[in-house]
Amino acid sequence: MQADFHADSILTRSFSQEMSDAAACLKAGGFDPGQQDLIKRLAKALADDGPHPAYAGAFDDWRKRKHYHYKRNFLLRYQPHLAHGADGVLIATGELKSGKAPKDDRKFRRKIAALCFAQHFFLEARYGDHHIWVLDLPFIYKDWPSIQIAKANPGQIDTLIKLSEGRLEEKHREQLGQAVTHAAAYTEKAHAMLSQAQPGNRAWEILKCWFADEETSDAMLQKFIGEMMSGLRKFINVLRSNKIVLLDHPRLRGEVQTEYDQQFFNAEAFVFKGNDPVSAIYIQQVLFKENPIVKGPRNFARLLIHEIAHRELKTADHKSAVDGIKPTKSRLPFVKTSTNSDSWAYCVMNLADMLTPLEIARARIN
């Protein structure tokens, strides 16, 4: 699915905006002198065009250092309940001096938010030049760190700082990392198969299965092969880049008020419209709700291909495989299958031999 910055929606802020604000705060400096080198590395890791793998170790180093227990009495004078486990973050801000409360509370909170963002940002997998990042905020976050910490009272800030476990289990993060690698391999195999497509062979018949209605000519399909190969090359470039970030949207963890937002709350995943340098994919229900057609890790890979089609080709959700995506002139004609995300995703999976005959049949039931 594709989300827009809808006027009546809670989805008015994206990962890229949050990362950009965290990076700007870290780059501005003014943190504790003992943490300056690490803060500079964190700032470099959050580059303008997306996370930089060369500095990924800074996030692990910060997670270790954040838990160091400082023995400084002035913390007790600032807020007694903040001196038990949260002091690593508070001292790192550089805003608590001489036992006094910070002069600029807004600046203090921005620094806390940037450090909390860094605490929950992971380079989950690294395969050669291929890097997969995960932002895994604790479930208590119902908004982005910069927004929630700006509004929180001291006790709530204390709780947010102390939490180290994200929403996802370690096995979930591993599955997501593997899914990106699998999606890249499936897309590469599909591209190779498609390059050999000609009337009557297997690749051609698979293409017809997912895109051709009763009136689609061979010439139309031949022209579409060129368009699809170009599209798959874009998919491969994204999947083999170091700019893929997987996360869930924190604002969809709470109560959803509008019908517009409800569709994203219930979605397996979605992306934001627009040209974003970071390929952020919002994983909503795919890990927690079983797909009725494709199961397990293959479904994660199928879903990533679906979302990247939205992002790279601006495809639509004319029909879902759950509702049936068999091409027909009356219900799902070629003009729509050729721009339907699920049609692209299932065709790629089929070309890569990653669908069973039963899964193919179920996806085509209208």
Number of helices: 16
Gyration radius over CA = 23 Å
Find the count of extended strands (DSSP E, 2+ residues).
8
- In terms of DSSP E residues, the strand content is 5-15%
Arithmetic mean pLDDT: 88
Structural class: alpha/beta
Approximate shape: elongated
Helix content: 40-55%
* Secondary-structure element series: EHHEEHHHHEEHHHHHEHEEHHHH
Largest sheet, spatial ordering of strands: 1-7-8-6-5-4
Distance between the termini: 20 Å
- Main sheet specs: 6 strands, mixed
Are there runs of 5+ residues with pLDDT below 50, and where? 69-85
Any key phrases for this structure?
366 residues, alpha/beta, six-stranded mixed sheet, two-stranded antiparallel sheet, 9% strand
Describe this structure in words.
The protein is an alpha/beta fold. Helix content is 50%, strand content 9%. The protein has 16 helices and eight strands. The strands form two sheets. It has a six-stranded mixed β-sheet. Strand 7 (269-272) and strand 8 form a beta hairpin. Helix 2 (36-45) crosses helix 3 and helix 6 packs across helix 7 (145-151). The relative contact order is 0.13.
Q: What's the SSE blueprint?
A:
Elements: E1 2-3, H1 15-28, H2 36-45, E2 46-47, E3 50-51, H3 57-66, H4 73-78, H5 87-92, H6 105-119, E4 121-127, E5 130-135, H7 145-151, H8 154-162, H9 170-194, H10 202-211, H11 218-239, E6 244-247, H12 259-266, E7 269-272, E8 279-283, H13 296-313, H14 334-337, H15 341-351, H16 357-363
Helix pairs in contact: 1-2, 1-6, 2-3, 6-7, 9-11, 9-13, 9-15, 10-15, 11-13, 13-15
